[in-house]
Amino acid sequence: MDAPRIDRERLLQWPFEDVYQHYTAKDAMLYALSLGLGADPVDRDELRFVYEKDLRVLPTFPVVLCHPGPWNADPATGIVRNRVLHGEQGVILHQPLPPEARLRGRTRIVDVIDKGEGRGALVYTERQIFDADTGAPVVTLSATSFCRANGGFGGPSGPVRQPHSIPERPADHEIDWPTLPQTALWYRLNADFNPLHVDPDVAAKAGFERPILHGLCTFGIAAAAALKALREDPARVEALDVRFSAPLFPGETISVEVWRDGDVVSFRAWVRSRAVKVLDNGRIRLRRS
Ligand SMILES: CCCCCCC[C@@H](O)CC(=O)SCCNC(=O)CCNC(=O)[C@H](O)C(C)(C)COP(=O)(O)OP(=O)(O)OC[C@H]1O[C@@H](n2cnc3c(N)ncnc32)[C@H](O)[C@@H]1OP(=O)(O)O
């Protein structure tokens, strides 16, 4: 049997259905808890994200909303799903998220790039999320799937996204954020059910000694840590971007380096015990205060 192969034109017209979701305060609190917020019971700043009184919603929360499901598991995509890793993620918040809302999400594939045989393919997706009642834009999510087994399908080699450059000076802050051995088991309850993060057999087929953490969980942690280090109001966040540079395992401690230059925050994250950079090119754009 021939190896699966991406048909770029078919992917660019992949027929996603709109996804409607009514989220409540409980969903927003579960998301924050699954990242590890609330570990210190007297930390009032963190409590705001896990307690319904004056609840605030983390700016990375929309990444778990209006998820279109495991579309890349369909053999018709030609994608070798168990070799896909999350490469990059962007979030644009058109308005701060309330503790409860009815939303409609529309996903589409915006480009498919061929990095070459043995190097992989990039599938760029976009999810626009609207207020289900008024139609007003709420969030735009952009994601890069790094399809490690799909290079050489004959597509264009660009354009590729240019990641944000981290300042060359030493970080202004560094903050350690422990994860739990069961962090991925909690995180998946935000409706992110990829078995790569829970099933040792699936992880082994993907080339890992054990299940790895969701990239989006690392993203949420790193962004929350950066805002905490700066004591910055999450409601000021207008946009975020990151690139995932190496997998990390649940239970490892994430060390987040943070820089601030006016309304732009840069960040990246390490697992110091293995001297591995797990997240790079992080940028948070803040609304002018
Ligand atoms: C909507 C959702 C979509 C997501 C679906 C996935 C569902 C999730 O549940 C799955 C996950 O969460 S997986 C966990 C999170 N992700 C990871 O752990 C990936 C970590 N990164 C890696 O392993 C490597 O960087 C790796 C493998 C990505 C690249 O490593 P290498 O092949 O060694 O690449 P390298 O030699 O460093 O660079 C080659 C070219 O690729 C570009 N590049 C590198 N990292 C990239 C990345 N993360 N995203 C996009 N492009 C990337 C480099 O710039 C380089 O480009 P060029 O050839 O043009 O110079």
TrEMBL record:
<dbReference type="InterPro" id="IPR002539">
    <property type="entry name" value="MaoC-like_dom"/>
</dbReference>
<dbReference type="Pfam" id="PF01575">
    <property type="entry name" value="MaoC_dehydratas"/>
</dbReference>
<feature type="domain" description="MaoC-like">
    <location>
        <begin position="166"/>
        <end position="268"/>
    </location>
</feature>
<protein>
    <submittedName>
        <fullName>3-alpha,7-alpha, 12-alpha-trihydroxy-5-beta-cholest-24-enoyl-CoA hydratase</fullName>
    </submittedName>
</protein>
<dbReference type="InterPro" id="IPR029069">
    <property type="entry name" value="HotDog_dom_sf"/>
</dbReference>
<feature type="domain" description="Peroxisomal multifunctional enzyme type 2-like N-terminal">
    <location>
        <begin position="22"/>
        <end position="148"/>
    </location>
</feature>
<dbReference type="GO" id="GO:0003857">
    <property type="term" value="F:(3S)-3-hydroxyacyl-CoA dehydrogenase (NAD+) activity"/>
</dbReference>
<dbReference type="GO" id="GO:0044594">
    <property type="term" value="F:17-beta-hydroxysteroid dehydrogenase (NAD+) activity"/>
</dbReference>
<dbReference type="GO" id="GO:0004300">
    <property type="term" value="F:enoyl-CoA hydratase activity"/>
</dbReference>
<dbReference type="GO" id="GO:0006635">
    <property type="term" value="P:fatty acid beta-oxidation"/>
</dbReference>
<dbReference type="InterPro" id="IPR054357">
    <property type="entry name" value="MFE-2_N"/>
</dbReference>
<dbReference type="Pfam" id="PF22622">
    <property type="entry name" value="MFE-2_hydrat-2_N"/>
</dbReference>
